[in-house]
Fold each of these.
Amino acid sequence: MIKKTLLLFSAIALVFGSFNFIHPAEAATTALADLNAGDLIRGQSLSAVYYYGKDGFRYVFPNDKTYFTWYSDFDSVKWLTDADLGKVQIGGNVTYKPGIKMIKINSDPKTYAIGENGALRWVTSENVAIALYGSSWNTQIDDVPDGFFSNYTMGSDIENSSDFVPSQETASAASIDNDKNLKSPYIINLTDSGFSPTSLNADTGRAIKFVNKGTSKHSATSEDLLWGSGTLNPDDSFIRYFNNPGNYEYFCSYHASETGTIIVTE
């Protein structure tokens, strides 16, 4: 296993913010319907690996260093056809697993520990860093390209070792779903007789998935034309977050009489 992992690691090369790895060319593909939250997925043509979130989006590993804070190898990666991978919308980037490493960027002299959901916690002194990560603390720092730094948010400073316990932070992030607080989406089916349900009460922070269960083309298009699914063929889907409370009315651009409303509350 160690030899296999080292061979895989040696094959890594950054490609458009992700990376390549060796895998048998004859790998069988997995159907979209057989994916489960937490799966690692990739397509056939490109070797970028993604995390399939509980909300139905795929999340990008910006580089190999981020990936290896979460996983030790690529053994569980599932292959999709390129067409199926393209149907899974990108939801954002994965951040470092909390507690594992510290990070910094060249344009910022501060060193940060990583908290929940990519919260940057400034380690304010060398004594605190030693208390958290031991005498070799300075070997536990990764440089993050400036372009990836925006994936993170600013958290509270670490003034004392009691402010941050790396092992506890790591344990609390059992998965990327857990770290990002991803939840399964609400489902609205697009049928040949209309939307089902036609009215949905939803909470902020939880995605809504539109699924074409009909036999013809459908869409979900907002009345104000500010958002829309585009054409959804049978079995296609579209996922969107509605992060602000309010009423969102929409219609099918192929069947204008088919309408629906989403009522979002805090």
Note: Residues 2-10 form the longest helix (9 residues).
Amino acid sequence: MDIVIRPVEAGEYEALGEITARAYLLDGLLDFGESDAYLDELRDVAKRAAAAEVLVAAEGGSVLGGVTFVPGGGPMADIAGPGEAEIRMLAVARTGRGRGAGEALVRACVDRARAVEGCVRIVLSTQRTMRSAHRIYERLGFTRTPERDWNPLPDLDDITLLTYELTL
């Protein structure tokens, strides 16, 4: 079967929330384990879908992963400025990794950004340890923007997020 990228359906919110939370947790991307408050954000697909576009990579009846595409500013944007779209919360279940689901999700976001009037760039934040994701971004032409790196938790010095951009 082929992997299809499409908008998430309401009946898939819980499954995608768990895939996202598990991907971050099992990959060691959350410092506080199951009690990490960010886990609630990762699991709350309904909230993301109300404020941005949530896409899934699906194969047959199974959701393999998902991503949040933010076409402009608003409550889901972390770093996007005027004329920029943003990619957030890219996650693929372990069973879907190495099969192109992550790259297909990022490509779908790039295609959507190109269709947004006035959008000249797509941006994203990532953790240092997300090396597989970095390879996808770099393969698709994203470049590092160290001047935009930022810390979502200023009280913790070691949580600096790396940033990338792709000029459209």
Note: Helices lie at 13-26, 37-43, 45-51, 101-115, 131-139.
Amino acid sequence: MGLEERLFKIVIAGEGGQGVQSIGELLAEAAYISGQQALYIPNFGVEQRGGVSIAFVQISEEKIGSPKFQKADLVTVLSQRSVERTKGYLKPNTIYLYDQSNLKAPVIEDLAVGIQGYDTIAPEAFAKMIGTEEGEGMAPPKEQKLIVRGVPAAKIAQEELTPRVFNIIILGAVVSLIKVLAPDKVRAAVEQKFGEKFRQRPELRELNFKALEIGIKMGLEPKERGDNG
């Protein structure tokens, strides 16, 4: 499905500090670099119990008419609480991307979320983007006929890279699944956003680009439909 045919609507949700807003901002920036239209709206959940952070992104070849939407083409969830918060955006055949690592997401309560929790800064700023406690992992909802894709992003980040690039792995998986942004444009967006950090610490560039590549490969793997899909 190409952008010439439709507007692509994306919801990304997770705990404050998991880099949700960085993913949304980078998707929009990559769209701009590609010459496409994009709209990114952050929702930090400052007044919502538990500080769940949500990013809303729309990408299109044509002008985007409304800043809000009710149903999404792709929903990405990074914590169990985000599963509940995003149910209303699901429709039949929504692509449902979730982190299937058996690690509990870190929880940042309301008082810790706010301007200091604005995670559109470089991903290495968050030392606890993933949890350290083992858990059962997330389970996608079964109310809708979804196209389900689970990726072990937190586990890969912890074991092979660094927890600080967890969200960049997720970004790569999103890019593969939506199929409307060229990977080189996404890399350009990452470079543009974090260029100064990369110049100060060149190893961060390699880590972030490797994380992006891993995420893209994960997203390219065959999708599996939900239990009722």
Note: The first strand starts at residue 8 and ends at 15.
Amino acid sequence: MAVSQIVQPNTNIQRCAAEFIGTFVIVFAPVALSATKRYAGADGSLLSAALVSGLAVLTMIYAFGHISSAHFNPAVTLGFAVVRRFPWKMVPWYWVSQVLGGIAAAGLVGMFFGFGHGTHVPVPGPALRDIAFEAILTFLLMTVVISVATDTRVPNSVPGLAIGMTVVLDVLIGGPVTGGSMNPARSLGPALFAGHAAQSAYWIYVVGPAIGAVSAALLYEAVRGNERKVSAGQNDMLDALQDISGRATG
């Protein structure tokens, strides 16, 4: 019993801390870029925003992927859980960590440069279009994430680069329309410190990514072709939790 009381909190804290820090960085980077574009020498173009977003994701995956599997996105966590590649009991903990990381990042940028930067507000048009657009962008992201992160046929060095470049692609495509969020935690932080327009549109950045991530995860599981090709590491958290539970009841 004493072992379980020591091991379980430490294990969960480390994973949640990794999700908090990773999400903090991937939100801080593009929001800070948006806030500093008025300064001399800054680049406020869509390309720079896409590159900064993708590079932030890439570096955080390599930094924390071995600790928390580097979700950094509530929609990605949901997608993994739906197809049983992630334990449901960990989902709320990851969501809280990701959301707090995004809020902290947006809040810190606001303290430095003023609030209201890096928000996601769709261009005028039907909400259904915006939801579908975010769903498609997230579908692409989740397809790459679940394929490179869970399939043993993919070399270990590939996930960070592949996922980071997918983020760059999605932001380039979606930036002019919805901002290319794909991530409820990315959109929530800035929206909380912005005005009504960003806050009233936030639900789009929850519904769209959730639909896209779940659809992509289900589809990839259907076409994967061989369950034996699933990386054992993707279920290491579930195995660890079950092991801890066994110790507690043993």
Note: Residues 2-249 form a domain with the Glycerol uptake facilitator protein fold (CATH 1.20.1080.10).
